[in-house]
Amino acid sequence: MTYYLPSYEMTQLNNTGQLQIYFQGELTDSALYREEEIYLPLSFIKEKLDPNILWDEKSKTVIITTDKEVFHLPLGKREGMVNLQPYSFSYPVIEEQGKIYLPLQPLDKYYNFEVKHIKDESVLAIHDLKEPLTQGVTLADVRLRAKPSLKAPWLYELEQGNKVYIMKEEQGWFWIETEEGQMGYINEKDAQLLGIKWSEIKKEPYQPWNPLGERIILTWEGAWGATINPEKLGDLAGVQVLSPTWFSLAEDGLVKNTADLRYVNWAHSTGRQVWGLFDNSFDKDLTHNFLQDAELRAKAIKQLLTYVELYQLDGINLDFENMHLKDKDAYTQFVRELAPLLHEKDRSISVNVTFISKSENWSMIYDRKALGEIVDYITVMAYDENGTFSKTAGSVASIPWVEKGIKEILMEMPHEKIILGVPFYTRLWEERIGENGEMKLTSKAISMTRAESWVKENNLKPEKDPFTGQNYVAMTKNDVNYKMWLEDEVSLEQRTELMKKFRLAGLAAWRRGFEKEETWPVLNKMVNSR
Fold first, then answer.
1. Residue 73 in contact with residue 80, Cβ under 8 Å?
2. For an engineered disulfide with 376, which of 208, 233, 297, 523 has Cβ 3.0 to 4.6 Å away?
3. Are 171 and 262 contained in the same domain?
4. Residue 412 belongs to a domain
């Protein structure tokens, strides 16, 4: 049997001349010490503390978003912005040898981490307070060693009964840290585990508006510049949220505005909320130029916040569709920058998304998991299963297709935030033989009211289609085959049951004006029945 005598050589933990970062007990990176301030590399912060921190190359600005604040920290300047308002920082962002560094102050206020600076060793010990620490105590007088071996040089001496944090185990040795930040290996027989330490992180999550815990009924209002007369809207039984299409993206980050304060006042007088809809004009290139420019994003956000105050809006509904796939992350960043500023004003934010599909411009553009973590509600546009793009006639939203889509999206988004979109329209399909003998397919979208009238005009009797779960009509006239899958009480009831089955937040109808007169009271009764 071979016995090794312990090494009596003393060494230093860090003899590189650099300020080394130990994160969760692992040597991770190097920091800077300038003007009596510690600077952390942006790359370290992004990898270990905040994957969403952003370096905007065009404006040379670091952008940090939290639940309640958005920080713009320009390179080399002490003057930046907090929530788009001018703000003076104690130390600027700096660049050395092509790397961006951020001052420790005020990062320690943004993120939940603890820093210990061991000046004699030129070492930073950083702990993520969201992660638990294993506590222990030394069972004897020990020496901390540079490697997991008695033959390794020693770093520090600890007395028996010294409380330590056990960061990892390696070859029968513990890598430990003391309260003072001293680090090294001790044999595992020289330490006893005491338990797990959790740091208390005080965080008050934003509570989105919800009508006393009830299921939400939202309807979009197709405004598009037209003045809406509230007196002609009817009772809208059960509707709690109105979302008019008032705001659209224009060139250079401008927001086109057609909002109407009279409409908002009427809605509030009836106890309803108004979430102004902001769309991207469904222009891929316009949207790309906007999303990829931090200054344009900030410009648009300032305008939206102004309109929120001016028109006393209760929230913003984002309807960005038909985008380049390469702008997926930039769209998420825009939402991430807007959300805290709306929450600061106690306003809601919701986003519209499609079901999951392989369409690069209409579905793959959404980082649904990230969006679900940022916003208050996600309205799922659960329609357009078939449309002008289709090669065969079909329902705009068959019940099996909707259920499948819900199951898939619930893999990425929380059920309590999802509002299920329902169509108040259908498509009238026409199949005719063309001059070349091939079948020619056309369709047009029509409202529930017009669809009902067309069925009556042609003396048709709807029949239940077992494949779609909807009422269906068909006829042939003048060598043209007509087909239509109806949106009516039958389909609404089944969509409502899916909402209940998957415990979703409510329903969102596209759109008001397409419904039949009796639709709202019927839908209200369906939604609020247990």
1. yes
2. 208
3. no
4. yes
Specify the DSSP element, H or E, that contains 277: strand 273-279
Looking at the chain, the number of H-run helices and the number of E-run strands are: 11, 34
Pull the structure tokens for residue 494: 């089944």
pLDDT at 340 over 80: yes
Among 2, 9, 43, smallest CA distance to 23 is for: 43
Number of structural domains the chain divides into: 3
Tell me how far the alpha carbon of residue 282 is from its chain's centroid: 20
Last residue of a domain, one of 197, 226, 241: 197
Domain of 88, CATH number, reads 3.30.457.10
For residue 91, give its domain range: 19-115
- Residue range 138-196, pLDDT digits in tens: 999 999 999 999 999 999 999 999 999 999 999 999 999 999 889 999 999 999 999 99
Least confident of 76-80, 109-113, 242-246, 261-265: 109-113
Question: What pLDDT is stored for residue 437 in this prediction?
Answer: 86
Give the CATH number, domain containing residue 190.
2.30.30.40
Q: Which residue has the higher pLDDT, 434 or 322?
A: 322
Residue 121 lies inside a defined structural domain of this protein: no
Q: 353, 342, 491, 344: which is closest to 412 by C-alpha?
A: 353
Nearest to 254 by CA among 286, 277, 282: 286
